[in-house]
Write a structure and sequence with these properties.
Blueprint (H helix, E strand, L loop, with lengths): L7 H46 L4 H11 L5 H6 L5 H26 L5 H26 L1
Helix pairs in contact: 1-2, 1-5, 2-4
């Protein structure tokens, strides 16, 4: 085969390899997401149990009981729909804590030592973007 001939088999092999790599990355991402979700679900269950036990204060204990009985939701409490005394008190405490939370969040974003996963995720995103661009280039060359 001379240089001007298009090697369809080689191009298809490259595309299949690229697709397999993308599929592997997708599966890794899905697994990481599932693990993260499981961790969040566990943390939420621990928070709910702390509220039920009263260790987060009487207001949260009453609200968690109402959540459990499906009389209110966390969204209703936070969003201001629930106007019970307990919900109003909890929102006031949350509002007072917002400046500190914002500062803590900013500190974590600025400190790569506190957020190694963020750096890894950014590197993986950049690598995926580069691979997608290469794949697009392969498709354009077909």
């Amino acid at each position: 085969m001379d240089e001007d001939e298009f090697d369809l088999e080689a191009t298809l092999a490259e595309m299949n390899a690229a697709m397999a790599e993308i599929d592997a990355w997708t599966k890794e991402g899905e697994a990481a997401f599932a693990a993260e979700r499981a961790g969040l679900d566990k943390a939420l269950a621990e928070v709910e149990e702390a509220r039920r036990s009263g260790s987060e204060g009487r207001d949260w204990q009453v609200l968690q009981q109402r959540i459990d009985m499906r009389e209110t939701t966390l969204d209703d409490i936070v969003g201001g729909i629930d106007q019970s005394d307990e919900a109003v008190a909890v929102r006031a405490k949350m509002s007072a804590a917002i400046p500190e939370l914002r500062q803590n969040y900013a500190d974590v974003l600025d400190d790569p030592e506190q957020s190694p996963e963020r750096a890894e995720a950014e590197a993986a995103r950049a690598e995926l973007q580069k691979s997608l661009e290469e794949f697009d280039e392969l498709l354009r060359d077909l």
